[in-house]
Specification:
Blueprint: E1 8-15, E2 18-24, H1 32-43, E3 63-69, E4 77-84, E5 90-92, H2 98-110, E6 120-127, E7 132-139, E8 163-167, E9 182-184, E10 187-193, E11 197-202, H3 214-219, H4 221-237, E12 250-255, E13 263-268, H5 279-289, E14 307-313, E15 316-322, E16 324-326, E17 332-334, E18 337-341, E19 343-351, E20 363-364
Parallel strand pairs: 2-3, 4-6, 5-20, 11-12, 13-14
Antiparallel strand pairs: 1-2, 1-19, 3-4, 4-5, 6-7, 7-8, 8-18, 9-10, 10-11, 12-13, 14-15, 16-17
Bound molecules: (1E)-4-oxobut-1-ene-1,2,4-tricarboxylic acid.
Residues 17-18, 59-60, 97-99, 196, 247, 250, 269, 278-281 line the site of (1E)-4-oxobut-1-ene-1,2,4-tricarboxylic acid.
Length: 365
């Protein structure tokens, strides 16, 4: 089982602004430890260049989606997202990924888990990482997945067929600490979770503008130290426990918009600075900006009523439709959230994992 000389069927896809290896769950070992060990070898981790595997030497290109027919009557397919460490032998199921989610519907059609409709197909997805549901709708003229289209998303050259992703009203608390603002490691933040646990931080509180290039922010040693401190403390406050070895919560620095959007962001995922922003990360930022008394007040420019918010990021913007309503208990919750992404099959074939190296066991977070 460990050698896999015959290889494993794999589809490499771009999902939104990320890229990952998509598998049928049944093609991988059922035991999570064996599965993770195999995925490290498939992606070429741990190695900063991932030279011996499919990974692209960045967290945004070191991702895996496992898809299977769902036993849940509310869903057509189950999607498990796994973040594969680049330099660390770590595979984590602690976070979801809304970008790879964009490829799940087309993958499910390609692999005959779902029958394509005409002229479009909606696939109901249960996201196993969080238990949340999503619906992905994409054009399938003549029952075939459309490859070309007019949808452009920031961070991806050209245009392609749109994938509309809709998340129903969130089940969990929008404010995991119960507060619109907390002081964490001496800094005022808003801890929010509209699909991705995220800590909103005014950029100026960390002595940056929030408009810097990701590379410059990554190279700032003092900033890295402050972010780490905030993240460890916020993680505990958000009920996530010790987050030292996990990829959540994310940290989004907020700054006034520069290009007609609602806010400018620089997001840490959690060590590397995102070249754009995650889908669910942006959904959490958008909802967090609508929380009364949150740290976005005085920074963000919001339209007077609900609807679409344009989240600016280093390579453009991501439009998120969401609204926040307050219940009788005074607690805010997010309404339906929707985004448009694109996805593309890059190759479909057989991947041959690096032979097993029994000198280390993967660390699961
Ligand atoms: O927030 C990066 C990405 C993501 C996750 C990350 C994502 C999301 O851009 O839904 O898509 O935050 O690690 O793929």
């Amino acid at each position: 089982m460990t050698g896999w000389p015959e290889g494993i069927r794999c589809t490499l896809m771009r999902g939104g602004t990320s890229k990952g290896a998509y598998f049928l769950a049944e093609d991988l070992p059922a035991d999570p430890a064996d599965r993770d060990d195999l995925l490290l070898r498939v992606m070429g981790s741990p190695d900063p260049r991932q030279i011996d595997g499919l990974g692209g030497a960045h967290p945004l290109t070191s991702k895996v989606a496992l898809v299977s027919v769902s036993a849940d009557p509310r869903a057509d397919v189950d999607y498990l997202f796994l973040q594969v460490g680049v330099e660390e032998p770590v595979v984590s199921d602690r976070q979801n990924c809304g970008n790879l989610l964009a490829g799940v519907g087309p993958f499910a059609v390609e692999r005959a888990l779902v029958t394509a409709g005409e002229p479009q197909t909606s696939v109901r997805v249960r996201m196993l990482n969080t238990g949340d549901l999503a619906v992905a709708t994409f054009p399938t003229p003549g029952g075939r997945i459309a490859v070309t289209g007019e949808a452009g998303i920031s961070g991806v050259p050209g245009t392609a067929a749109p994938v509309l992703i809709e998340f129903p009203r969130g089940g969990g608390p929008l404010l995991p600490t119960g507060n619109p603002r907390d002081v964490v490691a001496g800094t005022e933040v808003t801890c929010v979770d509209n699909g991705m646990p995220t800590v909103l931080i005014p950029a100026t509180a960390l002595d940056v503008t929030g408009h810097e290039a990701p590379k410059d922010l990554e190279e700032a040693q003092a900033l890295a130290g402050r972010l780490r401190e905030i993240r460890l403390a916020a993680g505990r406050l958000m009920g996530l426990g010790d987050v030292e070895h996990t990829t959540v919560p994310k940290l989004s620095l907020l700054a006034p918009p520069r290009d007609g959007g609602a806010v400018a962001t620089r997001t840490f995922i959690p060590v590397r600075c995102h070249t754009s922003i995650g889908v669910l990360g942006a959904a959490s930022v958008a909802a967090g900006l609508r929380v009364r008394g949150g740290v976005g007040e005085g920074i963000a420019q919001l339209p007077p009523t609900g609807g679409r918010l344009r989240i600016e990021h280093p390579t453009g913007f991501l439009d998120v439709e969401t609204d926040v309503a307050y219940g009788a208990d005074g607690r805010p919750s997010a309404s339906r959230t929707a985004v448009v992404r694109t996805a593309r099959k890059i190759f479909d074939g057989t991947v041959f994992p690096r032979p097993a190296d029994r000198s280390f066991r993967p660390f699961r977070s």
